[in-house]
Amino acid sequence: MDNSSQPLYKAKPFSQLTAAEIYEILKARSKVFQFEQNIRYLDEDDVDYNCLHCFFEENGKVTAYLRAYIEGKNIKLGRVLTITRGRGLGKRLMELAIESARKHFGDRKIVIDAQKHAEEFYKKLGFVTTSGEFLEEGIVHVKMEL
Known about the structure:
Elements: E1 8-13, H1 19-36, E2 52-58, E3 61-71, E4 74-82, H2 89-105, E5 110-115, H3 119-124, E6 128-129, E7 134-136, E8 139-145
């Protein structure tokens, strides 16, 4: 099999992303959050500049993505998505991104505002729920930490 079709994991600070990678990341985030989930918000929130961007890329396209950044004393994960589903990319992305984020930012607690429907997915990765349900952009979420 041609290696170009295998998912390639990348973890980069914003300053090291190529223009094509930034474009593909924003395209993937728009596809999932704005079109599939109908969330209406300005995605370009200036947080990206201070993030470690963790993603799988296949044939130049982002197939799974999240960003990690410091919030208070913790590492926060956000904008978690998969374009290519049913192949275990989400789980593998989380495992690699947690390792990458701790290497980049230091060994800190990791927090996430998880969509309620994904709570069990995160629990399988060791996260515990630390809040009740709340609405964010019209979608039920819970706070979780690792």
